[in-house]
Design goal:
Blueprint (H helix, E strand, L loop, with lengths): L9 H13 L6 H18 L5 E5 L7 H9 L11 H14 L6 E10 L11 E12 L4 E6 L12 H13 L4 E6 L12 E6 L2 H23 L25 H12 L8
Parallel strand pairs: 1-3, 4-5
Antiparallel strand pairs: 2-3, 3-4, 5-6
Helix pairs in contact: 1-2, 3-6, 5-6
The structure holds iron/sulfur cluster.
């Protein structure tokens, strides 16, 4: 075995890699003839990797201000959004569905290039990335699994779950999507409790494209200027403000709110 290290910037390294590979007879020619030109083209479009901004779909669902705080001043925090029961069940369902990989794609990675839509005065490439729990290849519909921690009938989807699904629908240009809620059964028996089939018309889908881009741009601009005050917060949103209780940036956030609104009597978060 021979292992050769070639170091340097990607664009400078590429010719050396090509040169080394071209002397080898066992390297499939598609790597040099097809894949490398594609990578080069991608790099040419991006121009400079430092000019790329990546926003996760999940960054846009809850508190955008917290996302900006986190990027500018990272603090490790345990993710409490999904129970270990939910994670295990999630994995179990997905592993069973791998048997149907022709029909479904599990954990489909989606990338959305905002620069196809925004004003050309913005020089950075902004990508939104996400992972769809299950994607039906045939009918091109994203499906999201949700695992509520409390028992009880679910008669309507959580707004942030619905928003996540609609973002994925926009990213896939799909007018249909499905949200599936599973109960917290400790005996690991699977019971589907609620399924919501979501449909939008073309105009609504276009609005979701606009929301996605404008929210990503806002987060991007706030991160680029290291200013969490430029991003929206959820402190007064009844469905989400419970997140403030465990937010490591609650003091800084409160002082920004006091400064911008003068609401010094707001209950402390
Ligand atoms: S305190 Fe609440 S509103 Fe402020 S950053 Fe944290 S989660 Fe967002």
């Amino acid at each position: 075995m021979d292992v050769q290290l070639i170091k340097g910037k990607f664009t400078e390294v590429l010719p050396s890699i090509k040169g080394t590979l071209s002397t080898s007879t066992c390297i499939p020619s598609t790597i040099t003839s097809r894949i490398f030109p594609l990578i080069e083209n991608a790099l040419f479009e991006i121009q400079d990797l430092t000019e790329v901004s990546i926003i996760n779909v999940s960054d846009l669902l809850f508190c955008r201000r917290k996302v900006v705080f986190q990027k500018c001043n990272p603090v490790t925090q345990i993710d409490t959004y999904q129970s270990s029961y939910g994670k295990a069940l999630h994995l179990a369902i997905q592993s069973i569905l791998t048997r149907y990989s022709e029909e479904f794609e599990i954990e489909k990675k989606v990338i959305y290039n905002c620069s196809n839509f925004y004003d050309k005065s913005i020089t950075q490439s902004i990508f939104i990335v996400g992972k769809i729990d299950l994607y039906d290849r045939k009918i091109q519909v994203p499906l999201e699994f949700k695992f509520p921690t409390l028992n009880g009938e679910i008669t309507e989807p959580k707004p942030y779950h619905l928003q996540q699904l609609k973002y994925y629908m926009a990213m896939q240009n799909s007018t249909y999507g499905v949200l599936l809620y599973f109960p917290p059964e400790h005996d690991m028996q699977l019971h589907l409790i609620s399924a919501f089939v979501v449909s939008v018309n073309d105009e609504e889908l276009y609005t979701e494209h606009e929301n996605l881009i404008s929210n990503a741009l806002t987060v991007h601009n706030a991160i680029a200027s290291h200013d969490p005050a430029k991003a929206s917060h959820i402190a007064y949103d009844r469905s989400l403000s419970w997140l403030c209780k465990t937010c490591p940036y609650s003091k800084e956030c409160l002082s920004i709110r006091i400064q911008s609104n003068g609401f010094s009597n707001i209950a402390k978060t």
